[in-house]
Amino acid sequence: MAENIRLEVVTPEKSVVSEEAQIVMAPGTLGEFGVLSGHTPFLTTLKTGALKYKDEGGRERFVFVSSGFAEALPDRVTVLAESAERRKDIDVQRAKAAAERAEKRLREQAKEADIDFIRAKAALLRAINRIQLAETR
């Protein structure tokens, strides 16, 4: 059996995951990447999406991550994310409300020049990813 790797997912506020994993799959800005024990070291940026991993027992786990960085080393993966939460901790109602607010801002953008389009689009993307991840069980 292959060796496990250490997975650490942290945000500026808290540690979200700190456990052994068989494999880690993450949403890199240049595409999804996977890391197994013994991987060649690299550093990459992350996009908003779902980080997937198999825990020591082989159970598939999911974590929402919103941008940040990932460092892969032969024995560990460290993710520094702007925000992150385990799938079980996602508040779907809150995410749906955030999506509605962002969609409203984007509709109003055509009428008003002071709406921050990029910020509203990013908020909508985060909300959609949270909802999709939480509702796929």
Automatic annotation (TrEMBL):
CDD domains in the record, alphabetically? Answer: F1-ATPase_delta (cd12152)
**Where does it live in the cell?**
Cell membrane
> Where does the record place the ATP synthase F1 complex delta/epsilon subunit N-terminal domain?
6-84
Q: Could you tell me the keywords of this UniProt record?
A: ATP synthesis, Cell membrane, CF(1), Hydrogen ion transport, Ion transport, Membrane, Transport
What's any one GO cellular component for it?
A: proton-transporting ATP synthase complex
Please report the record's description of how this protein sits within the membrane.
Peripheral membrane protein
* One MF term in the entry's GO annotations: ATP binding
**Gene3D superfamilies assigned:** ATP synthase delta/epsilon subunit, C-terminal domain (1.20.5.440), F0F1 ATP synthase delta/epsilon subunit, N-terminal (2.60.15.10)
Enumerate the spans annotated as ATP synthase epsilon subunit C-terminal domain: 88-135
Q: Does the keyword Membrane apply?
A: yes
- A Pfam family name for this chain? ATP-synt_DE_N
- Output the SUPFAM superfamilies linked to this UniProt entry: Epsilon subunit of F1F0-ATP synthase C-terminal domain (SSF46604), Epsilon subunit of F1F0-ATP synthase N-terminal domain (SSF51344)
Can you state the subunit structure given in the record?
F-type ATPases have 2 components, CF(1) - the catalytic core - and CF(0) - the membrane proton channel. CF(1) has five subunits: alpha(3), beta(3), gamma(1), delta(1), epsilon(1). CF(0) has three main subunits: a, b and c.
| Family, per entry | Belongs to the ATPase epsilon chain family.
Q: List the NCBIfam families.
A: ATP_synt_epsi, PRK13446.1
Job description of the protein = Produces ATP from ADP in the presence of a proton gradient across the membrane.
Q: What name goes with this protein?
A: ATP synthase epsilon chain
Gene symbol here is atpC
